[in-house]
């Protein structure tokens, strides 16, 4: 009997609690904010690749070219923290038809170019000093954090505007936000992959314009639940 009374007491309390809990009228919307900016920096990855039949000679030749490349980069007055060696490799390769071994040495350097007006001069000089592979060029902004903040604010405004559009025909108003979820993906600048080509230049010709950086888009996405008043 005591167990039955206990069960009824629990059920009564749960029913009373459920009646007291009221559903809060709300609306859920998504917002998107986009900021388009002209990039002011370029992240460049370049490689010296050397091939030959003798491992020691191949590595030596590769090192000599890299030394010349690094000296040139320093002459361009780039800060020491703006360039670094990323990868070094020396791999044997076997030709099954000729039944001979050969070797392939590579060294990759990453450069952060903060002055895009030096782009053509830098790329031409790198090739002249021995770079024979341009792996990628990625344009980016030095004010990424600032533009991401602007994009997030625009996303919130967009979410609220959508909510106001929906409830305007109902005679209700959009109140405070209940929940906010940031759905933005990590921003990764899109690289431009460059094929290697000869950079011949006529000293009497007019300066070339080989760079069209365009704009990059920084996007923020948000989901918001608003109280309806």
Global outline: elongated
Biggest pleated-sheet summary = 5 strands, antiparallel
Number of strands: 8
* Strand order in the sheet with the most strands: 3-4-2-5-7
Proportion in β-strands: 35-45%
Poorly predicted ranges: 194-207
Structural class, by secondary structure, is: alpha+beta
- How much helical structure, as a percent, in the residues? 25-40%
Q: SSE order in H/E notation?
A: HEEHEEHEHEEE
Helices, by number, come to 4
**Average pLDDT taken over every residue:** 84
Radius of gyration: 31 Å
C-alpha termini separation: 48 Å
Tell me what you see in this structure.
The chain is α+β, with helices and mostly antiparallel strands. It has helices spanning 2-20, 55-75, 119-128, 144-167, and strands at 26-37, 41-52, 83-95, 100-113, 133-140, 174-182, 191-192, 216-228. The strands form two sheets. Strands 3-4-2-5-7 form a five-stranded antiparallel β-sheet. Strands 1-8-6 form a three-stranded antiparallel β-sheet. β3 (83-95) and β4 form a beta hairpin. The relative contact order is 0.25.
Characteristic key phrases:
32% helix; alpha+beta; 229 residues; five-stranded antiparallel sheet; three-stranded antiparallel sheet; single chain; elongated; 36% strand
Task: Provide a compact summary of the structure.
The protein has 229 residues and is an alpha+beta fold. The protein has 4 helices and 8 strands.
């Amino acid at each position: 009997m005591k167990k039955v009374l206990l069960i009824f007491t629990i059920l009564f309390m749960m029913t009373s609690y459920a009646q007291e809990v009221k559903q809060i009228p709300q609306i859920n919307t998504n917002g998107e904010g986009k900021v388009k900016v002209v990039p002011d920096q370029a992240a460049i990855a370049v490689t010296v690749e050397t091939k030959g039949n003798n491992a020691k000679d191949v590595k030596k030749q590769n090192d000599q070219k890299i030394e010349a490349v690094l000296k040139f980069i320093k002459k361009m007055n780039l800060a020491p923290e703006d360039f670094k060696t990323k990868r070094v490799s020396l791999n044997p390769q076997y030709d099954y038809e000729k039944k001979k071994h050969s070797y392939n040495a590579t060294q990759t350097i990453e450069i952060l170019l903060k002055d895009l007006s030096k782009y053509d001069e830098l790329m031409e000089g790198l090739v002249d000093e021995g770079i024979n592979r341009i792996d990628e060029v990625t344009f980016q902004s030095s004010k990424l954090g600032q533009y991401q903040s602007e994009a997030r604010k625009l996303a919130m405004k967009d979410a609220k505007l959508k909510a106001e559009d929906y409830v305007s025909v109902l005679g209700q108003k959009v109140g405070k936000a209940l929940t906010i979820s940031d759905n933005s993906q990590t921003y990764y600048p899109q690289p431009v992959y460059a094929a290697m080509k000869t950079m011949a230049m006529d000293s009497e010709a007019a300066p070339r314009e080989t760079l069209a950086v365009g704009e990059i888009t920084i996007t923020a996405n948000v989901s918001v639940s608003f109280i309806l008043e």
